[in-house]
Amino acid sequence: MHFLYIACLPALSLATSPPPPTQSNPTKPDIARQHAYEDDTSLVKKYVLSNYRKTYREPNGTLEHPYLVPGGPYDQSWDWDSVFTGLALLDLGSAPYLAGSMKNFFDQTNSITGEVTICVDPTTTSPSCSSDPADNQASGSHAKPLLIQGALIAADFTGDYEQFHSYKNKMAALLKYWEDVRKDPNTGLYTWHDQMESGADNLVLSTCPSPRSGCWVDACANSLAAPDVMTFLYREHLAFAKFLDEWGEDGGDEEREKAELIAKAMNDVLWNEDDGFHHAHNVTSEYDIDFATYVLGFPLWAGEDAITKERATAIVNRITSPDMLGEWGVRSTSSENEFYNNEDIITPYSNWQGPIWVNSNVITAYGMLDHGFDDEALVLVQRVMAALAADLRETGEWHEDYNAEDGKGISAAGFLSWNTLGYRMADDIAKKINPTKV
Ligand SMILES: *[C@@H]1O[C@H](CO)[C@@H](O)[C@H](O)[C@H]1NC(C)=O
Ligand SMILES: *[C@@H]1O[C@H](CO)[C@@H](O)[C@H](O)[C@H]1NC(C)=O
User: Fold this and answer.
1) Are 144 and 193 in contact (CB under 8 A)?
2) How far apart are CA 351 and CA 341, in angstroms?
3) Considering the entire predicted model, what is its pTM?
4) CB under 8 Å to 50, separation ≥6 — which residues?
5) Angle between helical axes of 95-107 and 168-181 (0-180°, round to 10)
6) pLDDT (tens digit, 9 = 90+) per residue, 83-103?
7) Which residue spans traverse the membrane (predicted)?
8) Whose Cα sits closest to atom 12 in ligand 2?
9) pLDDT digits (tens, 9 = 90+) for 181-239
10) CB 106 within 8 A of CB 171
């Protein structure tokens, strides 16, 4: 039944115009806040220390390697949750679980087509790899292009690159999949299959989030190009290049050239000089989607070879404007957007139409460090730390998203996942280290 049908119209007609980018940056670190930040950080670290083991799982069923789960309602292996949780907990012994999570995904990658068999848990409609073999169903979806980067984080930390050598063909197949299936020949842009695949389930960039929704028509598939997928893929090629170098194999330069082409397409087609950020783009309708969302910060994370200092500065100005940066961190969607809300939504989609998400803030902060915006990075981390600490004081646990207006936890009580970045983010920012640099 399709009476919820909303035609997948190009989002352009719905776009609100963003406020003019601020000239001076309003986000210098607040000295008065320093004391609270230290208390918040120590509370958050303590919580991680007593709970991190809940994210570790031993091999089970089709998952032959140890892996990570997000916690709370999510007891499955998820792609980007694993990468960020594994990164967060390296000093607490996560490397084998991070490496194992990536190996499980590689095991489920078809070495010819590069498709990843992910599993659909019928009770939660979560894209996941459940530990229950009976849950395994091939799906039209695909893992985010972050798996090679995840493997690289584990390899860099342990110095053991060889453990992934036997997955070389799987890595190559994954990258080839994006090239063959997701690259728009006209623009050189790469697309998400649907918004849910991007991990930002109901983000306003898409007119229809996924096939799980009544509004879906097949024309919606593979139409959304956005700075997040471009950044992921850029980094994914660089990560593969590093593995090839470490293994003493040829091909690293070729991968670096492919990365450059991805950055070029992102900059040539998506950049909007007036708005000062990379738009999203519908490759089917050829419309630009100019909504300001958290993904506008992601190109910072591609590093200084990918975007110019001028563009990085414009992006930082835009993302620290008051409609994007609130008291508790960067909003998933601008408060000026007509769809902006902080409602408690989890099924069928987690809410990315306003709430604060920890992963996107930390990624943006790491990206800021790469371009020398150390103060702004500190501000983001202080604010997110404050939300995490306030949640612990109030409820004794964490949630997957935070109300951008009052900082309160919204959904998925018990969530750990990338919120555990709270364990290391203050130290990284203090030392000006981006541990995700490729
Ligand atoms: C393995 O997975 C099954 C199904 O999800 C679960 O019931 C069981 O407790 C798991 N075993 C271990 C050792 O984790
Ligand atoms: C892109 O445009 C096509 C054609 O208008 C539409 O069907 C599709 O849903 C749009 N994609 C997104 C992500 O909004």
Assistant:
1) no
2) 8
3) 0.91
4) none
5) 60
6) 999 999 999 999 999 999 999
7) none
8) 206
9) 999 999 999 999 989 889 999 999 999 988 777 888 888 889 999 999 999 999 999 99
10) yes
208-217 — which CB contacts under 8 Å span 24+ positions?
Answer: 208/6, 208/8, 209/349, 210/349, 211/140, 212/125, 212/348, 213/4, 213/348, 214/1, 214/2, 214/3, 214/4, 214/5, 215/2, 215/4, 215/5, 215/6, 215/7, 215/8, 216/8, 217/8
DSSP 8-state symbol, 302 = T
Provide, rounded to the nearest whole percent, the portion of the chain with pLDDT above 90: 75
- Nearest atom, ligand 1, residue 75 CA: 5
Q: How far is the CA of 181 from the centre of ligand 2 (A)?
A: 17
Cα 55 to ligand 1 centre (Å)? 14
- Tell me the longest C-alpha to C-alpha distance in the chain: 57
Q: Whose CA is nearest to atom 8 of ligand 2?
A: 220
- Measured between alpha carbons, how far is 357 from 82 in angstroms, rounded to an integer? 16
Q: Where are the domains of the chain?
A: 59-181
